Automatic annotation (TrEMBL):
Residues 12-428 form the TRAP C4-dicarboxylate transport system permease DctM subunit domain. The lineage of its organism: Bacteria, Pseudomonadati, Pseudomonadota, Alphaproteobacteria, Rhodobacterales. Keywords: Cell inner membrane, Cell membrane, Membrane, Transmembrane, Transmembrane helix, Transport. GO terms for molecular function: transmembrane transporter activity. This is TRAP transporter large permease protein. NCBIfam families: dctM. InterPro entries: DctM, TRAP_DctM. It comes from the Bacteria. Its main location: membrane.
Length: 436
């Protein structure tokens, strides 16, 4: 067999192994090792794997992963999410479907200090959904808003997916974070317009009964007090990062320390909870780094087989062209999102797609933003829909059906596709800040 044939078979076997339930990291390592053995020999395969383990994890940058994960977990238990929602609820209570809009903006701000979509889905399903239900919103709309707006956690920096992409594409984490700001705000605006459009054209889909419930009275002083921890963390992390005072790893450390101080001051962190968060941080970090190691080995195996080079020739010298490749790439990611999780999609597809995108002359920062948005659509699409299942689990409501949440998320999926189209047509929406 030729190296190309071995690489093509390796990709097919990898997909089959994942679909039958093998952990993706184990599947990628096994397939890559076997393919290199067939392409070269056992000695080269073992040496390549050990070299990859050293090269892929020795970077100082990888310390950013546990730090931002720990910061997100600490923020989740400190009550900052509820304060964020309270602030926007007070500011937007007179707007039509104001609680839905408040949920979007609160998720956007919460995303800027956590970077994990699942954390947003968990927090706001317990805070925003009961409040919206109390004010007469339908359950489908309330859960759909939370599911849709939770994806902002992986786009607005800091973002775990942005970090993973930056590592795999060998791009600056700081520039990727900057590139996520414009599209993140654009997506939040698209969600807001979607809510207002639904409330204006299909009020029965938004409101179940008239809003007769009383709002929690929160004065200007309370708004300011509740805003202080949120703004302090944003200034500490994003201000330090974009002001040039901190690199991404140092910003993660500062953010984790700031979140720890807030949790301690609010007495929401006892010894047992802190230990649980540290263990959870370790588990998430190890799984992410192991997957990065496996993806790096998979990428080098593909380079050895010549598969990316052949695909680049097919797309770029034929009649498809760069934008034809981009369309096929987006459709593939959205389809995979129905089956597997976000990071797994990136680890499988990017080693194949990045060389083609680079050969096509596409901006890899812009390409990364497109990738993250397309991947995040998978959080809302059946049957996988991780955000949907997270909300179902967090709500603990036996009458709430998963299908109801999926249907509530449909308008927000359409809003994400529209936003994706705008970013594809106008790349500057994603690159203007990163180029400053």
């Amino acid at each position: 067999m030729t190296p190309f044939e071995i690489g093509a078979i390796a990709i097919t076997v990898l997909v089959v192994l994942i679909l039958i339930g093998m952990p993706i990291g184990v599947a990628m390592l096994s397939v890559s090792l076997a393919a290199v053995v067939l392409t070269r020999n056992e000695t080269v395969a073992v040496r390549m794997m050990t070299q990859v383990a050293n090269d892929s994890l020795e970077e100082y940058l990888f310390a950013v992963v546990p730090l931002f994960v720990l910061m997100g977990l600490l923020v989740s238990v400190s009550g900052v999410g509820k304060d964020t929602f309270d602030v926007f609820q007070a500011l937007l209570r007179r707007v039509t479907a104001g609680l839905g809009v408040a949920t979007v903006f609160a998720n956007a701000v919460f995303a800027a200090i956590t970077g994990i979509s699942i954390a947003s889905a968990t927090v706001f399903s317990r805070i925003a959904v009961p409040e919206m239900r109390r004010h007469g919103y339908t359950r489908r709309f309330a859960t759909g808003v939370v599911a849709g707006s939770s994806v902002l956690g992986m786009l607005i920096p800091p973002s775990l997916l942005m970090i993973v992409y930056a590592v795999l594409a060998e791009q600056s984490v700081g520039r990727m974070f900057l590139a996520g700001i414009g599209p993140g705000l654009l997506l939040a605006l698209a969600f807001t317009l979607t809510i207002l459009l639904l409330a204006g054209t299909r009020p029965d889909a938004v409101f179940e009964t008239g809003d007769a419930a009383e709002y929690t009275d929160i004065g200007l002083l309370d708004v300011v007090v509740k805003s202080i921890p949120i703004l302090a963390l944003m200034i500490l992390v994003l201000g330090g990062l974009y002001g040039g005072f901190l690199n991404p790893t140092e910003a993660g450390a500062a953010g984790a320390f700031g979140a720890l101080v807030i949790a301690l001051l609010r007495r929401s962190l006892d010894r047992g909870t802190f230990w649980r968060l540290l263990v959870e941080t370790g588990q998430i970090t190890v799984s992410v780094l192991f997957l990065i190691l496996a993806a790096t080995f998979f990428s080098r195996m593909l380079a050895l087989s010549g598969v990316p080079r052949v695909l680049a020739d097919v797309f770029l010298t034929g009649g498809v062209g760069p934008y034809g490749f981009l369309l096929a790439y987006i459709l593939l990611i959205v389809a995979l999102g129905c089956l597997i999780d976000s990071i797994s999609i990136m680890l499988i597809v990017l080693p194949i797609a990045l060389p083609v995108a680079e050969a096509a002359g596409l901006d890899l920062i812009w390409f990364g933003v497109i990738t993250v948005i397309a991947v995040e659509i998978g959080l809302l699409t059946p049957p996988f829909g991780l955000s949907v299942y997270t909300i179902k689990s967090a709500m603990d409501d036996p009458d709430l059906k998963v299908g109801e949440i999926f249907r509530g998320a449909v308008p927000f999926i359409l809003a994400m596709l529209a936003t994706l189209a705008v970013i594809v047509l106008f790349p500057a929406t994603a690159t203007w800040l990163a180029r400053l």
